[in-house]
């Protein structure tokens, strides 16, 4: 199941790195896999209650939208990708992904002296660390 999340995540990261854009099909694919997982998955390794999935979808999206409108700097693709990941892994899973994404993003921003980073790249890093911890 993780492979179905990994393919669009890698594509989003590569495109964000090269062009600073996240294609819509990537977050839509991640959201569709999450929806399928919510419908057919029993109480397996990725069982996440529906309320936690919707909280993971809405809470980060609303917060990032408010930040984007007030200060800018957060792209729409970043918001949609994070909302899709929040639905797939729930609010706690998204928090873990963000924990593992923020550290390399801050290191990259400081090393390159940039205020804007390709967030999908670092979300991908966080996703793969989180997936590795889940599957180990």
UniProtKB/TrEMBL annotation:
The keyword Transmembrane helix applies. Residues 4-109 form the Prepilin type IV endopeptidase peptidase domain. Its main location: membrane. It is a multi-pass membrane protein. It comes from the Bacteria. Keywords: Cell membrane, Membrane, Transmembrane, Transmembrane helix. InterPro entries: Preflagellin_Peptidase, Prepilin_IV_endopep_pep. The keyword Cell membrane applies. Gene3D superfamilies: 1.20.120.1220. It holds the Pfam family Peptidase_A24. One of its GO terms (molecular function) is aspartic-type endopeptidase activity. The chain crosses the membrane at residues 25-42, 54-72, 84-109, 116-135. It is found in: Cell membrane. One of its GO terms (cellular component) is plasma membrane. This is Prepilin type IV endopeptidase peptidase domain-containing protein. It comes from Desulfosporosinus metallidurans.
């Amino acid at each position: 199941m993780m492979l179905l999340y990994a393919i669009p995540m890698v594509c989003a990261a590569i495109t964000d790195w090269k062009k600073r854009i996240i294609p819509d099909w990537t977050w839509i694919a991640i959201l569709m896999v999450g929806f399928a997982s919510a419908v057919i998955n029993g109480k397996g390794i990725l069982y996440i209650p529906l309320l936690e999935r919707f909280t993971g979808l809405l809470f980060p999206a609303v917060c990032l939208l408010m930040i984007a409108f007030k200060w800018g700097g957060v792209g729409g693709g970043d918001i949609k990708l994070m909302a899709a990941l929040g639905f797939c892994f729930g609010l706690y899973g998204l928090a873990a992904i963000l924990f593992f994404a923020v550290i390399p993003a801050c290191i990259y921003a400081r090393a390159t002296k940039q205020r804007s980073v390709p967030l999908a790249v670092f979300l991908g890093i966080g996703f793969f660390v989180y997936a590795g911890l889940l599957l180990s």
